Amino acid sequence: MLTFIIVSKPLINKCESAALSFHLPEPFANWFAGNGWQPRSHQLELLARVQAGQSVLLIAPTGAGKTLAGFLPSLVDLVDRPKPKPGAARHGIHTLYISPLKALAVDIKRNLETPVSEMALGVEIETRTGDTPVHRRQRQKLAPPQILLTTPEQVALLIAQKDAARFFDNLETVIFDELHSLVTSKRGHLLALGLARLRTFRPGLKTIGLSATVAEPDELRRWLVKQPPQGEIALSELIHLEGGAKPEITILKSSERIPWAGHSARYAMGEVYEAIKQHQTTLLFVNTRSQAELLFQALWNINEDTLPIALHHGSLDVGQRRQVEEAMSNNQLRAVVATSTLDLGIDWGDVDLVVHVGAPKGASRLAQRIGRSNHRIDEPSRAILVPANRFEVMECQAALDANYLGAQDTPPLREGCLDVLVQHVLGSACSEPFDADELYDEITSSAPYAGLSRQMFDKAVEFVATGGYALKTYDRYAKIRKDDEGKWRLTHPRIAQQYRLNAGTIVEAPMLDVRLTRHRGKGGNVRGGPVLGKIEEAFIESLAPGDTFLFAGKTLRLEGIRENTCYVSNAPDTDAKIPYYAGGKFPLSTYLADKVREMLADPQRWKRLPDQVGEWLKIQKLKSILPKFDQLLIETFPRAERFYMVAYPFEGRLAHQTLGMLLTRRLERARARPLGFVATDYAIAIWGLRDFGLMFERGELSLAELYDEDMLGDDLESWLAESFLLKRTFRQCATISGLIERRHPGKEKSGRQMTVSSDLIYDVLRTHEPDHLLMQATRDDAAHGLLDIRRLGEMLFRIKDRIVHKRLDQISPLAVPIMLEIGKESIGSDAQEALLAEAAEELVEKNK
Amino acid sequence: MTALALKQDKSGLDIDFRGNHLIIDPSGCVYWPDEDTLVVSDLHLEKGSSLATRGILVPPYDTDATLDHLAEKLTSWQPKRVISLGDSFHDDGASTRLTGPSRARLMQMMKRRDWVWICGNHDPSPPESLGGMHASELYLGTLMFRHEPLMEFVPGEIAGHLHPCAKIRRRGKSVRRRCVAGDGNRMILPAFGAYTGGLDLKDPAYQGLFQQTSLKAWMLGLQNIYEIGADQLFG
C-alpha cells in the first residue's frame, strides 16, 4: 500500500495549491506502472480531495483521463472495504454515475470494465437506462450493483420509490459527467432536486462534476453542493486542467460555388468524400436529423469505393444505433454521419477527422464536437468545417476564431422551472409523506431553486394537491392531502403509478414506429416487417400513402398508418421528400452573432474568407451599406409588386421570429399593410403592399418607434395570447407538471372522450386564470426558449439610435439569402386561414 | 345543396338543407330562422370535473367557458327554441357537480325559451331539475334531431355524437378544423364544449353515413366558414 503526498504541479491551475495527501492501494499503483503510465496529477488531486470528504468540479479538456479520474476515488474506496461474507446482506449502491446520454453510460461501462478486470477489483458495475429490460431493473432494486451508471430520468424514478432512503443508504459518491450540458436544461433542474434529496438521505455525500471548459465555472461549483439558506453561496472545490493540443480546424476551401441559402451543403459532397477517403475514420456532424439523412444519402450516391459509411441519430432504432457504436469502436467504419446524440463525451478511439457540415451555431458546441477526433490530450484534433451557405461561411470563420481563442458561449443558467418543481414535489410524496417545511428547505438547498420563495413553493404544493386553481372545486379529488401528523401523503397508490409513467422532463412530439414492409399497391393490406425507428406523427400525417421520404438512410414510400405504427416500403431510385423534424435546430449563439457582426463591419477580415464570399460583401458595400458593428441595417426595396423590408440583427431564428410577429402587428396598425415575413438566423424580411421605404422617408412611419423596446409590452402580450408557439410550450409544461398524461404506446386510442388536448386546456386557462402557475411556467419558458424574448430585448436595447436605413430600388446582395427562404416557412394561424380559403375557392372553381 | 349561391356574411354561412334555410355559425352551432331555433351539440358540461375524479386535475373552468360561448350565441341569434343534441352533460354525475353559479346561469339562459335536451350516450337521462323538455328524438317539419346518427337512411336527420373534424392539405401543410358535415340528406354537428376534441371525417366511424359524392365539410375558421368537398379531404 502506498501513500503519497503531492504538491500541485504547474499543470493544475486555479486551485489552492495546498499539500494534499491521498491514498492509492497497491493494485492501482501496479496497474498504472504495468501499463507504463503514471497517474496524472489531476487524477491524484481529485482522489485526495474526495478522500478528504470534499466535492469537486473537474474541468479538463477531452482526452485528459477525466473518466478514470472521476471513478478512481470510488474504486479505491470499494477495494479498501472488507468483502461481504457470502450470504450476508448486500451493501447497495456505493457510487451513482449520471450522464446525459444513454449511449454514454453504455460506453463508460465498456471503458471502466477494462481497468476493473485488469486489476481484478471485483467491483460490480451496471447500467440502468430507459433501454434496460424491466426484469433487470427490478433485479437491480433488490440487488443493486456497487456502481450504477444511469441517466437523470432514472434517478428521478429511483428516489420516488417507496423505500428510496433505504435503497441509497450506502451511497458515498455521485459523479455527474458532462455537467456543463446537464445543467442547462429542465433535466438539470430535476436532477438538482434529485441530488438535494440524495443529500437528505446521505448528508456526507460527495459529488464529482466532470465538465468541459465553461464560461462560468462557479455556476457548476454551486450546483454540486448544498446551498446555505438566505442567499449565501457555497461552492465545490475546483480542479481546472487547461491545455491540450490546439485543434487544427479549417474551413473547406471549395472550388465549387457556395450557395446563397439552404442547409444541405450538397455542393461540397465530392470534396467531403475525398476527405473521408484520405482519413482512417471520419465523424461527420450535422445539426438536424433531416440533414443527417440528406448528407448520408448524398455520400452514398457518390460512394464509388463502397466505403463503410453509417448513419446515427436519435430517431433510429436502438439496436441499429448500438450496432453503429460497436462497429465504430471496433474500427470497422470509415465514416459516421451523426447528430447531437453522439456529440457528448463518447470515446471513439481512432477517429482522425471530424467534419462539421453546416454552421456549428455555437463556439462551445463546435469545441465539443471537434474534441471527438484524436481522443488523446497531446495530439491535436483535426476538423473541417463545411458551411452550407454564405452566411454560414462567416459563422464558421467566427467559430473558428473563437475556438482558437478558447472562447465559451454556453448559455447562462436559468432559475429552476416551476413545472419541474411540481413534478418533484409529487415524486417526493410518492416516496414517503413529506413535511412541507423540510421539503422546502431541501429544495432551496439546490442551486437552481435556491431563490424559490416559500409562497411559490406553497403554490406548487397546492398545484400537486388540487391543481392549484382559484376556484376550489377539486378538494375532494386531491392527489395529496395533509395527514394527522401534518405531512402531505398520497391519497391513493394509483397516483404513484401515474407518476412513474409520466416522470421525466423530455417531452417529445408524438412519435410513430416506422416499420418496413413490402409495397402492396392500392388497397393492399400492410403488416409486419422490421422496425427502422421512430418518426414524428405530425410529419407523417402531412404525407399521403405513396409519398416518399428519407429515413434511416433509405428512400421510403409510405404505405399506411395503423394505430401507432407507420408502414413503409423501399422506394429505390426516386427523389424523396425530406423529413422535417421540429427539434434539433439550435439558434445562433449570442457570442457568435457578435463575432459575425464584427467580421461584417471589418473589410480587413474578409481576406480570411473565401474569395466568392469576400466579393459578395464588396458588392454589398457598393450597392447598399455594410452596417458597423453596433448598428442595425434596414433595407427597403420593391420586388414583383410587393415592398420588402429586410433587417439584419443576427440574433438567431427564434428571436427573429418573435420580432417578425411583433413588427407585422405594428406595421398593420400603421396601415403599412404587411402581408408576411420570414426569419433566419441572420435576418428578417417583411413584405407588404405599401412602400415601407417611402413611408420612412416621408416620416409617415418612424423607424425608431417601429423598433422601440416597448414592443415587448402590450404587443407581446396580445400576440402571446394567440400564439401557437405558446400552445406548444404549454403542452410541454402541462406534461412535465403531470397535468396531462404522456401518451403511451397502445393507449392512444383510449377514447377521445377521456382526454383533453392541451390546446383546449390552454385556451380555457388563459381566459379564466391567466396567473395560474402553469401559465407562469409557460411564459417563463417562452421567454427563454421558443420566443427568445430575453435576447430580443437585449437587441432592441443595443440598436437604439443605431438604426441605419437604406432605400434601394432593387434587392441587395445581403438580402438574397433570406429572399430565397420565402415560402419555406412553417404555418401560423393566419396562414392556415389562407390555405382554407384557397381550398374553398378551388371547390367553387370546380363547380362553375 | 346550393350553399354558395347564398352569400356568407359575418354571422354565418347560409345553406339549404332539404328545402330548409339554415345558417351555420362559425362556432359550429346551426340557426334555423323559419323555426327561430338554435341547434347545438355535445356540450359535455363538467367534463373537467369528470377527469378530476380520475386524478387528472384539468382547469375546472370548462363549464364556464362553454356557457360563456353559448350565452354569446344566444345573444346574437336570440332564438325562441334551443335544441341541445345530446351529450350535453359529460356523465350522470355532471349535474350534481355543476356549481351553484353555473347552474343558475344555465337556468337563466333557458328562461323564456323552449329548451330541448336530446338524450345522448353520456347523458341518457339529462337532469330533470334543470327543466326543459327531454327527448331521444325530435321531429320538426321535414327535419329530425337525434344524438347518434342512425345507420339506416333517414333524410333530414341532424345529429351530433361523432365530433366531426376535417383536414385538408395544401402546399405540404395540413390544416385541421372542427366542421359541420353533410351530404344533403344528413348533417352532423361538431362538438361545442370547451374540452371536446374531434374525430376526422375519414375515420371508419363515419362509414356508411354519407354519400361520398355529395359530402361537404363546412370547416370552421376563426371568423369564416370554408366549404370543402369530400375529395379535398385529407387523412
How would you characterize this protein structure?
- The complex is a heterodimer of chains A (848) and B (235).
- By secondary structure, chain A is of the alpha/beta class.
- Chain A folds into 5 domains: 2-241, Rossmann fold; 255-405, Rossmann fold, CATH 3.40.50.300; 418-506 and 730-779, no CATH class; 511-570, no CATH class; 624-723 and 787-833, no CATH class.
- In chain A, 41% of the residues lie in helices and 16% in strands.
- Chain A is built from 32 helices and 28 strands.
- Chain A has an 8-stranded mixed beta sheet with strand order 2-10-4-9-8-5-7-6, sandwiched between helices.
- In chain A, a hairpin with a 2-residue loop joins strand 22 and strand 23.
- In chain A, helix 16 (418-431) packs across helix 18.
- The longest helix of chain A has 19 residues, at 829-847.
- The model of chain A is unreliable at 1-17 and 746-753 (pLDDT under 50).
- By secondary structure, chain B is of the alpha/beta class.
- Chain B has one domain: 4-Layer Sandwich (Purple Acid Phosphatase, chain A, domain 2).
- In chain B, 16% of the residues lie in helices and 32% in strands.
- Chain B has 4 helices and 17 strands.
- Chain B has helices at 47-52, 62-77, 94-97, 100-110; strands spanning 8-9, 12-17, 20-24, 30-32, 37-40, 81-84, 114-118, 133-135, 137-140, 143-146, 157-159, 164-170, 173-182, 186-188, 199-200, 216-220, 225-229.
- The longest helix of chain B is centred in the first third of the chain and has 16 residues, at 62-77.
- Mean pLDDT of chain B is 91; it is low at 1-10.
- The interface between A and B is large, with 51 and 49 residues.
Keywords summarizing the entry:
heterodimer; A: 848 residues; alpha/beta; Rossmann fold; eight-stranded mixed β-sheet; six-stranded parallel β-sheet; 28 strands; disordered N terminus; B: 235 residues; Purple Acid Phosphatase, chain A, domain 2; nine-stranded mixed β-sheet; 17 strands; 32% strand
